[in-house]
Each structure stands twice: as structure tokens, then as C-alpha cells.
Amino acid sequence: MASSAPQGSESVLLLGATGATGKHVLRDLLASNHFSRVVEAGRRVTPTESLQDATGKEKLTQKVIDFEKLEESGLKDEKVDAVVVVLGTSKASAGSAEAFEKIDREYVLNAAKAAKVDAGQQRLVYLSSAGADANSFFLYPKSKGLTEQGLASLYSDCIIFRPGLLKEANRDEPRLVETIISKIHDVVPFGRDTWAIPVKELAKAITVAAEQGSANLSPDALATKEDPKKEGVTPYWVIGNKGSVGLSRLWK
Question: Cα–Cα distance between 74 and 32 in angstroms, integer?
Fold first, then answer.
């Protein structure tokens, strides 16, 4: 879907705003001149006192939702033009493989479905992960790959981000691999754009993609079209780490 609406006239829903990347996406969406209304939804929302210095904070609407009772969420009533999903977890954080899949895939798909309007077109942007593969034998990449395909079956205009290592994530529970590789990334002088990205830059890229939609997506995104060739799954656009870095530089 092309984003043909006048600048500043569109609305966007953000799921996952309290996460390592999501907190930056929220601020960028609020600061964006493209969106006149930003809806943040989650089981908990960003404390308003932490947004006192945020540009565009007056555009924010917050909704506390129960992912087990999404029929009561009212997400569809928001009638947003774009849906941005940066909701996810890890097996370690979730506590089990079953809980991981419930949060990482079931909640994401059900919330995206709950936000979909019956008439008109919407675009969706989803933060996945490098190596996402619905046919993988491993839990994490398989869950991400299946989630991608599930979202593409709901939204015909679907953009997927598959970044590499996330730098400067400042997680509540630091991930050892991210910490080690991040230090290496700082000293290795070549190929940096291909395998790691600071979360602040990734957030800017996600915001730009939400503004543009797939039809207007900048060549800087280096996006490739992926077609799972599965019934009901629309081909979708995938942006890797290097494209994420390139797209982030378009942020104004």
C-alpha cells in the first residue's frame, strides 16, 4: 500500500513500546511529522513522566490490554493506518519454550489481527531477527519465521526487519553474546553495517518504514521480496542489517 495521505494525517499503533528497541521507536513515532496520532498498546505502557521531554507527546494515546482477552482491547476501533510490532522475548525470559512461543508468536499474531480493520488497507512493520526461518529446526528462528508468515497472511503490505546484533540495547537482563559482540563491533573497522546496529538507529529505520510503506520504500532499505509460496501468505519485504542502517540515515 502506498502511503498517499497528506503528511501529518496518519495514525500508527505500536506494540512492544516498553522493550529495548520499542522505547526508541515510540519516541521516533511521536517526533515524526508523518503521524498525527500514535497509539501505544501493551500489558503495560510507558510511564508518562518518562516522556515529558518527548517531542510530540501530545499525539500519544495509551491502551493497557490483556493479550488473553484481545476481543476486549478495542484495537480495531483505533482504525490506524500503520501497525508497528516490536514485541518479542527470549526463551530464557519467558521461562519455557511453550511460554516463549505464546508471547513471541501467538500474542503478536493475535494482536495484529485484532488491530486489522475490515475495510481499507493498512501496512504493518515487524521487528523479526536475522536468520528467521519457518523451516528451521531451532526454536527461535522458527518462531520468528512463522510469525513473519502469519503477519503476511493478515496484511498485504508487510515489511519485516531482520537486523543482526542489537547494540546499546540496555536490557533489564543483559545478553552475554550481545555484550561481547558489541565490544568487537566497536573495534573492527570493516563490515560493521552488515552484522550489528545500535537500537536507536534501528528504531529510526523502523519509523521511516512505517511512514513509507512498501510501495514507497526507499532503495536505501535494500529490501528484498520474500515469497513463501504458501496459500494465503502474501509476499513481503525483508530489510536486513545493512538496509536498516541505510534507512536509519533518512530519518529527519
Answer: 24
Tell me how far apart the alpha carbons of residues 56 and 45 are, in angstroms, rounded to a whole number.
Answer: 17
Neighbours of 10 (CB within 10 A): 21
Active site residue 140: yes
CA distance 45 to 50: 11
Q: Is the dihedral of CA 122, 5, 26, 61 positive or negative?
A: negative
- Structure-derived torsion over alpha carbons of residues 236, 241, 245, 248, reported in degrees to the nearest 10: 40
236 counts as catalytic? no
Residue type for position 123: R
Q: Going residue by residue through the chain, which has 252 residues, state the pLDDT in tens, using 9 for 90 and above.
A: 344 455 678 999 999 999 999 999 999 999 999 999 999 999 999 999 999 999 999 999 999 999 999 999 999 999 999 999 999 888 888 889 999 999 999 999 999 999 999 877 899 999 999 999 999 999 999 999 999 999 999 999 999 999 998 886 664 555 555 555 555 556 565 556 677 899 999 999 999 999 999 999 999 999 999 999 999 999 999 999 999 999 999 987
The one catalytic residue in 23, 144, 200, 242 is: 144
Report how far residue 127's alpha carbon sits from residue 159's, in angstroms, rounded to the nearest whole number: 9
Q: pTM to 2 decimals?
A: 0.90
